[in-house]
């Protein structure tokens, strides 16, 4: 009855964890961002990625295979 109260769990099999800084390609450009959230759909990990600083944007439904890797500082 009260499903909205149930908290969504972060997938344990996810390669990247929340707040990991990553590199990825988006619309043909190399970008970096932070892992904002992840979910498991049809056996695949789907991420939400936060980009930008002062005016951030969230990129939804980004596949794990499309992420290049962790960003080196």
Q: Could you describe the 3D structure shown?
A:
The chain has 73 residues and is mainly β. The protein has no helices and 5 strands. It has strands at residues 21-26, 29-41, 44-51, 57-63, 67-70. Strands 4-3-2-1-5 form a 5-stranded antiparallel β-sheet, with no helix packed on it. The chain is globular, with a radius of gyration of 13 Å. The mean pLDDT is 88.
Summarize, please:
The chain has strands spanning 21-26, 29-41, 44-51, 57-63, 67-70. With 73 residues, the chain is mostly beta strands.
List the helices and strands and how they pair.
Blueprint: E1 21-26, E2 29-41, E3 44-51, E4 57-63, E5 67-70
Antiparallel strand pairs: 1-2, 1-5, 2-3, 3-4
Q: What are the defining features of this structure?
A:
single chain, 5 strands, mainly beta, 5-stranded antiparallel sheet, 52% strand, 73 residues
Pattern of helices and strands: EEEEE
Total number of helices: 0
First CA to last CA: what distance? 47 Å
The largest sheet has its strands arranged as 4-3-2-1-5
Give the low-confidence spans: none
Helix/strand/pairing class, anyone?
mainly beta
For the largest beta-sheet, the strand count, sense and barrel status come to: 5 strands, antiparallel
Would you report the number of β strands? 5
Cα-atom radius of gyration: 13 Å
Mean pLDDT: 88
Helix content: under 10%
Q: What amount of the residues lies in strands?
A: over 45%
- Overall geometry comes to globular
């Amino acid at each position: 009855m009260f499903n909205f109260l149930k908290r969504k769990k972060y997938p344990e099999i996810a390669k990247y964890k929340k707040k990991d800084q990553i590199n990825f390609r988006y619309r043909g450009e190399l970008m970096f961002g932070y892992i904002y959230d992840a979910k498991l759909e049809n056996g695949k990990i789907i991420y939400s990625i936060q980009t930008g600083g002062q005016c951030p944007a969230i990129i939804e439904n980004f596949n794990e295979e499309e992420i290049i890797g962790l960003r080196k500082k």
